[in-house]
Structures are given as structure tokens and as C-alpha cells.
Please model this.
Amino acid sequence: MKQNQTINEVIIVRSIACLSIVFLHSIGFALSGNHIGAWTRGFFDSIHVLLYYGTPMFIFISELLIAYSYRNKALPKNFLRKRFKLIFLPFLCMALFYTIPHANTLENGVTKFLLNTIIGDFHGYFVLIIFQFYLIHMLFHEHLKRWNPKIVVTVALLINVSYLAIFNFTEPLNIPAGEYIWNRFYWVPFFGWVFYFILGYYCGYYFENFIKRLHEFKWLVLISPLISSFLLLMFYHSDFINIHSSKRIDLLLHTTVMCFFLFYIAQKVRKIPGFLLTVNEYSFGIYLLHMFFLSLVDFVYPNYLVFPIGYYILFLFVFSTISSIITIYYMNKWEHGKYIFGKVNKRTESNPLTTKNKEQINEKTYNF
Model:
């Protein structure tokens, strides 16, 4: 039977992850200003740290969808070609676009473009990560479905923890580009994200059992985000782990429980709100473009202190999200727009989550 429904939970979780990333960056821009009170800065800084789950959550979602969709069949021959056209080409276009402010000379422009495209030296680095996992899925899918999930998840966690511990708790080595590697480049290799990939794979491959377990342990699922948030902020404010990054070692716990929590909550939603459906449709383009609109506001209105910081953050968040959606909408009316700014998902009907449509998914639903 052709699978023609969409898992509504994925739409909700993906939309929230997308909005979390935009809100995260909105707070980051606002906090870059001076003359903010210590208590106010501390409050929004704490929210900022808690929102870093957005990027790794997309890895979990993306692999969950692929593992579920192809658990009983081979990947299509155009699997990579399709994703290259709809994901990697927009990444290259945005890598060029975000090079422009740095292209005061031809040499600087070329250098920055190469850094953007090869080692992800802008916020689009996520695409380089996700393509590594596309290849890993293609190479290891047949093995993963035969191996013991508990052992594989444990090994992936150990690899991930060990890798992040190196960059979270050690000083840069005295080698060429050591500072850059410790501050930025280590984001891109898959070792820093492999746990989310493996967890997403088995939650997708055993999707029905995954949902069943969420309900069996619902109280733990509901309480865990409070515990992980407390630990995250305790480690951050005590300077035990003081970096601002989704590559914090304690994000492994926080992201995992947030994924489970949001999937459980999404199970309770009878009808998906229209604005979440819209965000889902435009999620990839929002991810690519929102930083431009945040930078635009920050450039035009650098003296935002005439507004309370909370209002300024809200303005940044709403303006960048809506402006990204409008831009993507009109650019997709052009035949080649989707290859530059990202494709718009086809909206699916938001039906109550019945047993039937819980067990069906349309892999054509765009994910990144």
C-alpha cells in the first residue's frame, strides 16, 4: 500500500525546532547590545542556552523520517540526487550570499566562500552534517537494522560524549588553525552528532514501539525537561561548561528529553495550528534566510535600546520569520527559486491522530 499520510507529530516537532532556532538567534542578536541590566541579561541568556536543542533535534527528526520511510524497502536510486538539488544547491547559494559582506576584496570573498562551502563557516553548516548522515545511512542501514539497538546507541553515545569532551574541556592544541578547530570546525564532523542520528534511526525504525514507550513512561517524559534544563543552567552559570553552543556535552541529555517530550505532547494535539503548518512548509528556507533578516534589523536599528529588550527580541523573531516566509513564497513562484532559497513543503491535511495515520508517513514531506 502506498503511504500517503504524514505523521502529524513530526510536523509539530519540526516546526517548534525551527522556531526555536530563530528565537535562539533573535536573543543572541539582542544580547550583543550594551547597557543591559545584569538580571535581564542573565534571564535571557538562560533562555538562550536552553534553546540550543533546535539544531540537533533536526538531525533526530531527519533520520527518524528516513529510517521509518525505508525500513521495509531500499532507498530510491535518486535519494542523494534529489537531496543535492533541493538541499545542497540552496546551501551553496546561501554560502555565496552570506559571503557578500566579507567580499571587500576578491581574495577575501573567495576565501570566505570556500570556508562557507567546505567547512560550514556560517549558520548553514548543518547541511554539511546532514549529508554526512545521508551517506552513513546508505552505507550502514542494512547493518543497523540487524545490530542490537541498545549496544549501538550506547556506543554512539560514548563516541559523541568523548568527542565533545575534547572540545568542551581542553584548550586548543598548538597547531596551525588550532584555535579555529576548537572554536568552530569541530562542529562539522559527524562524531559530534552521531548519537542523535542513531537515536533517530531506531526511533524511526521501531516507530510504533517508540510511541508506545513514550506513553508507558509519560511521567518521566514530562518531568525530564525540567531536570535537564536545571542541570544545563547549573553547569552553565557555574562555569563548568560555559560555552554558548549546541555542541555542549550536556545538550545530549537536554535534546534527547526535549525530543521525547515534544513527540509526546504532539500526540495530544487533535488539530495542528495553522501557523505551525506554515512554518513546517517553509522550515528549510526559514533556516537559510532568517539570519539575513536578523542582521538587517540589527544594521538598520543598532540603537534598539529605545525598546525594552523583550520587545526587541520579539520583533526580531517575528520580523525574521515572516520576512523569510514571504521571500521564499515569492521566490518559489520562479521555476528555479526552490534551488536557491529552498523548496516549500506541500501542505498536508491536519487530521486527528488516529491509529491509521500514526503508522503512515509520506517521505515526500520535505525534511533537512
Remarks:
- The radius of gyration is 20 Å.
- The mean pLDDT is 88.
- The chain has one domain: 8-358.
- Residues 8-358 form one domain.
